[in-house]
Amino acid sequence: MAPPPPSSGMSFRSADRPLDSYQFTFESFLEDSARIEPDSNGHDVYDTKSLSDSIARSQEEFGRTYHSYRAGSYHFPNDPSENDRNEEQYAIIDMVLDGRLHLAPFSRAHPPRKVLDIATGTGTWAVEMGDLYPEAEVIGTDLSPIQPAFVPPNVRFFIEDSSDDWDYPDLFDFIHTRVTIGCWSDMKAQIIERAFNHLQPGGWLECQEIPCMIGCDDGTMPDDYGWLRWVREFQAAGQLAQRDLNIGPHIKDWMREVGFVDIHESVFKIPINGWPKEVRLKHVGMMWQRNLLEGVSAFSLGMFNRFLGKTVEEIELSLVDVRRSLFDRDVHAYHRLYVVWGRKPEAA
Ligand SMILES: C[S@@+](CC[C@H](N)C(=O)[O-])C[C@H]1O[C@@H](n2cnc3c(N)ncnc32)[C@H](O)[C@@H]1O
Known about the structure:
InterPro entries: SAM-dependent_MTases_sf (IPR029063). The chain is α/β, with parallel strands linked by helices. Helices cover 31% and strands 18% of the residues.
């Protein structure tokens, strides 16, 4: 039922869309006399499991907490301050992607039906996908039980190590990763090949990843820039930990080698502080700077202690200059967000 056109008694501010461009429908709010049609597929495919105490408990080290299931596999904390930082990082990526949850060609008119979010973290992407696509079944998996309990009914979380064999009864039509550096020893074999095998023909894999290496286009970043020195040390620890911390630029090739087609790559720049002139980028940069300042201790403690043999005191002392370098607006450095999506061929 369309509302009446504006009459002499109604006025619109010029910024508002006139109401008569909308078509209202009330058919989903049923009256008492209306029958509700039952879904013939009346059972849930996935049952939720209760967590055993040992998985739910975290391990303490360096004054932080870490996952206890497959302990020692992921070297960044899972405590409230790291989870808050991840939420803020989520908001920054949301701004960079203009509110889009994915770039793979799904939409309200063409929704995904079975979605897997690997290394879901606090599960915000999975929850927002569940809200956006109520007809979809969304599964998020992670080593840490840090996901909310109150989620849309079509969203489920499981604790698992995604580098193990995957054991899902159905094929997915959308598989997703976001910010998973430090999770895998071999992302191609552990994630991209497995995703290919667990997608139905025509399904999509999308990876949204931020490599740790920074870039600069105008020569303002000296070779001894503090954050760049930190990145090199972080990479050295990553090599010893068998964790590739620069996965973004390789994903396109890995997808092609595994058999994906129709592969797209979009790369977005995230300034490391408020150095850009453009207001929106400046805002993103200032938020990113705060995120890096909050996160650098979490990124460093496990990696630099376990693999470079540094004490907590040595690490924290070395971070003073690293943090200070993030305030230097004369250095026009940025991180890159790689968004890569590809399709499993219909014939595969
Ligand atoms: C930086 S968080 C990102 C979370 C989320 N994708 C996001 O965008 O906010 C990385 C997550 O990967 C999880 N993780 C690390 N190794 C994993 C593995 N082998 N299997 C499953 N999850 C893993 C960690 O527990 C952590 O929650």
